[in-house]
């Protein structure tokens, strides 16, 4: 778990792999330095079933790990955390989309989400929706495949 529940700044730091200063141990018996969070690539490498997994399986597993590492104790993402993930982990798909009506609609739907939190299914739907409307997808489709 990410453990970032305080400020947006703390959340961004944690998403970028920096330790969360507000989550410092309070007990004198606890170690003074919190261990660094394990990188997603190391987490993926530790999953035996993915060692010979396809690129697509690894991509979905990566999304699942990033979601899990950023989610709260209930396994859900707050709206702010979800938006930070889009900006930090999905920026090549979101850059240049800010002025497009479909992108604005997706973000406003996120803001109107009744629970104020996203579960994994909602998060994946959001990622797929942004992917489908992104300019980067058009660039991907135009790549010539070697035969």
From TrEMBL:
User: Which CDD domains does this chain map to?
Assistant: S-100
Q: Name one GO molecular function term.
A: calcium-dependent protein binding
Q: Which residues form the S100/CaBP-9k-type calcium binding subdomain domain?
A: 56-95
Q: What is this protein called?
A: Sentan, cilia apical structure protein
The terms describing its cellular component in GO are:
cilium
